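Ops channel
N.P.: pipeline sanity check, posting one input/output pair.
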């Protein structure tokens, strides 16, 4: 009888212990809620959404992911850069990276604002860049500055003629500091343009940076997706002298980051893309 009574006591004690454990929420099976899932799968378009939840005393975070994800701003940045990369906006053409003589963008579009005395064949940019430049020029005009294209897209043949003329006048060593050899000019990409204003008689001069228009361009081009392609003090990286008139379209996301960090396109592509 005593043994039966003792067994009953033990059984009751075990039941009370199990009920107590359940009340305080100690998991009986370890790892049931706390597996760590990478949010890189989400960024890369994977199926792992990381739907587990963290323990929360207040209940305010119920249903939130069990790991911290990248901010919405960071995810949007990555998506924007990926889209611009896919559109070919980061094509790098310089002295080390030529393009084929037959290369020509298939979406060249006439721009609205250009120097009337320059060749008509140089009044084109890729469609997105052309639209962005039109907006840049119109915004500048609203603020009292006239900024127009002198030459934008150049074919391989056009660049060849231009470069050879510079070599005849200045010699190849000097010409190579400000003019690209054919196939090595980013004008051929349809994403670059030389711009100027009436204050310098629509010429391409370093003095442009000392004009109200040149200063405005330097400080605002990024807002429209353009960068000053050959900045001052970066000649050893770009291979060309400072050109405050030469702009290159890279999209708004990259342009803002290049402007903020003082990068060249070469530096940006190496460190950020």
């Amino acid at each position: 009888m005593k043994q039966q009574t003792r067994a009953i006591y033990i059984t009751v004690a075990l039941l009370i212990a199990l009920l107590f454990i359940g009340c305080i929420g100690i998991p009986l099976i370890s790892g049931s809620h706390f597996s760590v899932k990478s949010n890189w799968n989400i960024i890369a378009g994977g199926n792992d959404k990381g739907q587990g939840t963290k323990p929360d005393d207040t209940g305010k975070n119920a249903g939130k992911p069990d790991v911290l994800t990248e901010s919405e701003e960071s995810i949007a940045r990555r998506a924007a850069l990926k889209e611009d990369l896919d559109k070919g906006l980061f094509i790098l053409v310089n002295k080390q990276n030529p393009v084929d003589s037959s290369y020509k963008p298939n979406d060249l579009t006439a721009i609205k604002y250009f120097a009337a005395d320059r060749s008509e064949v140089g009044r084109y940019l890729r469609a997105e860049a052309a639209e962005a430049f039109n907006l840049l020029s119109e915004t500048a005009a609203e603020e009292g500055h006239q900024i127009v294209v002198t030459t934008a897209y150049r074919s391989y043949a056009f660049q060849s003629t231009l470069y050879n003329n510079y070599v005849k006048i200045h010699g190849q060593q000097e010409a190579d500091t400000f003019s690209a050899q054919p196939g090595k000019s980013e004008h051929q990409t349809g994403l670059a343009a030389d711009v100027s204003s009436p204050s310098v008689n629509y010429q391409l001069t370093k003095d442009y940076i000392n004009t109200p228009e040149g200063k405005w361009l330097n400080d605002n081009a990024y807002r429209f997706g353009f960068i000053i392609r050959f900045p001052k003090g970066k000649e050893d990286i770009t291979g060309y002298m400072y050109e405050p008139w030469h702009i290159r379209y890279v999209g708004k996301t990259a342009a803002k980051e290049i402007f903020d960090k003082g990068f060249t396109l070469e530096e940006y592509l190496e460190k950020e893309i």
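N.P.: looks fine end to end. The longest helix spans residues 2-24.
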